[in-house]
Write a structure and sequence with these properties.
337 residues, Rhopdopsin 7-helix transmembrane proteins, two-stranded antiparallel ribbon, 11 helices, 77% helix, 2% strand, membrane, G-protein coupled receptors family 1 profile domain-containing protein, GPCR_Rhodpsn_7TM, transmembrane, transmembrane helix
Length: 337
């Protein structure tokens, strides 16, 4: 249980006695970089992601009220809500290069809700890929019948997500809940098992399932009545683009999570450069949530059609206004003559 005693750990920029000008310069450079990355994220990605998310919610709710209900839209609606929640949690990086200060208990609660959104978005994407896969091959199995009931499937995903998030909250640690600490969404003072469980169930297993879905999609021969693979990919470009984006961004983040675990097991706090890369990986993770919402808005057919309708309406109004202004200008010139 010695690895569970994490009272010794701290951030390199907050704890090391910097005795040389080179060390001080390294800290200043690291903090400047993370500050600029944070400002770019807040200025560009957050507004874009939130606007895209709100537009998606409006479109899906409108289609639902018009009884245009599809299981894929329900899954993507759930995915959208999860990513919007992730964006709101990303506001915790506003204080960087500094960190939030909170008690152990408050930081554990914050971590619980963040992990709930993190696991939820990952497993909803796997469910979406599985639904598209079964739609293409249409096997007469109980699994295929289950995917035709998306509410039941989402209930199962939420149950698994809650259990994993609760497990992670326990692995943050159970001691000194009243003490104030520097808080990240994945707390630095969490037990090493926290990062290991998060890697296995938040990236390892989902990535394996995602890879299996793609292998079956590419390798298995579809029925003669099914559309070709290219047509299938073109019909659902948003899901496959999100899958690739999520894998790349979360791969980087989870590599850094494991690297931080290795430092904990070696009982070392690392360097300011390690701290910089970990903070950058966290912001990249949040950028993925914003990018996924933009992809849904512009590549998912119901959303794309609504965006095109709005653009066409704006184009129609502009020539109409110009057409009304021309006679008025002509009358003014003829009156002056």
């Amino acid at each position: 249980m010695t690895s569970h005693n994490m009272t010794w750990i701290s951030y390199p920029s907050k704890s090391q006695p910097f005795n040389s000008p080179e060390e001080i310069e390294a800290v200043i450079t690291s903090q400047n970089i993370i500050s600029r990355v944070m400002h770019c994220y807040i200025a560009f990605f957050v507004p874009t992601g939130l606007i895209a998310g709100i537009c998606i919610l409006i479109i899906f709710i409108k289609n639902h009220l018009q009884n245009n209900r599809e299981s894929l839209d329900l899954l993507l609606l759930h995915f959208t809500v999860s990513n919007i929640i992730m964006i709101f949690f990303s506001f915790t990086v506003i204080s960087r290069p500094d960190y939030l200060t909170a008690t152990h208990l408050a930081c554990s609660v914050l971590s619980f809700f963040f992990n709930f959104g993190y696991f939820n978005s990952q497993y909803v994407l796997i469910l979406t890929l599985l639904t598209l896969l079964l739609e293409r091959f249409r096997p007469s199995t109980a699994l295929c019948q289950a995917t035709q009931r998306p509410i039941l499937c989402l209930g199962l995903v939420l149950t698994c997500t809650f259990c994993l998030s609760l497990t992670e909250a326990v692995l943050v640690g159970t001691d000194d809940y009243h003490l104030e600490v520097y808080c990240q969404l994945d707390p630095l003072f969490a037990w090493p098992a926290y990062e290991i469980v998060k890697f296995i169930f938040g990236f390892g297993i989902p990535s394996l399932l995602q890879t299996l879905c793609f292998i079956v999609l590419w390798a298995k021969e579809a029925p003669a009545a099914a559309p070709s693979l290219q047509q299938h990919m073109r019909a659902y470009p948003a899901v496959y683009a999100i899958s690739a984006t999520m894998f790349i961004c979360r791969l980087f983040y989870n590599i850094m999570i494991l690297f931080r675990t290795a430092l904990k097991l070696q009982r070392t706090i690392g360097t300011t450069k390690n701290e910089l890369v970990m903070n950058t990986a966290e912001i990249v993770l949040f950028c993925e949530s914003c990018a996924s919402l933009v992809v849904i808005l512009f590549f998912h057919k119901p959303c794309k059609d609504e965006v095109l309708k709005v653009i066409q309406r704006c184009r129609r109004r502009t020539p109409a206004n110009n057409h009304l202004e021309i006679p008025e200008a002509a009358l003014t010139q003829s009156g002056s003559q």
